[in-house]
# Entry
Amino acid sequence: MFHIIKRTALLAVATLAASMFYSAPAAAQATRTWISGVGDDVNPCSRTAPCKTFFGAFQKTAAGGEINCLDPGGFGSINITKSISIICDNTEAGVLVAVTNAIVINAPGAVVQISGFDLEGLGQTGVAGINGIYLLNGASLTVRNTKIRGFRNGYGISFTPSNNAVLVLDNVTISESGSASDPLTGAIQVTPAIGYVVQATLNNVQLVDNLNTGLRIDTLAGGGAAATVTMDDSLVSNNGTGIMVRSMAGAPASLMLTDSTVSANGTVGIFAKGAGTVARVGNTTITGNNAALSMGSGGSIFSYGNNRVDGNTTDTAFTLPVIVTH
# Structure
């Protein structure tokens, strides 16, 4: 009996000692998760047991993984803090917010892809959202097949990284954004922090019926900041200023605009100002604006010679044509 008791005591001590050096593994995260309008966030977010919200699925998705939507629904706002793809092209991913941001990205080095979204900022209700998509940090952001509207307290997309970063937009429509009380709001801003370089590629983008500015490219933060934006096959219409490009010495900003239409903007179609500001325009129609073009101190807007500038209150001339060599 004594030996049995002694052996049991030793086993208990050994078990206790082992438990002091052992911690249970964290719950495994899936590389692909699913959400549904009739899901539940207590579920594992699998295909057969989907979650209800982006927040719920995000917690159960591994960095670099993907969230998919099974059916239409309102899936709530989300703060993104790691690489993730949220793809809902075969249905509609709705996010409706008041007095806040719909999607915030704050993850240095993260690669984020978003597709198939409908972001509503309730701009007509008096409790408008701030930004539809707000990137503070991240290596790259790609947004496809998405509609953003009603963010009257900020921008449809605010791309303001404190690191070198890339923005890609494809088939994106932004409307009814920008605040009457804040001129530094509108549809899209591309404004890197001091010392950082950003590139943006915008294809088939519609910036329509926004207050203040349709597209703002701004490196006035200075200190070596730089922004290069290419915009193709797009419409910039019925905003305050259609496209604004501003920079300062040592912080260049440039725009390449091709195969697009800039029309019916209340102030000016394209505005460029500041040392290091260059806009190049090719095969683009600029019409129905108060002024077609405006160049402030140091700013240049060059033409490839195949643009159509007509029907504006003031049909401003380009700085000079671009000489193309073959």
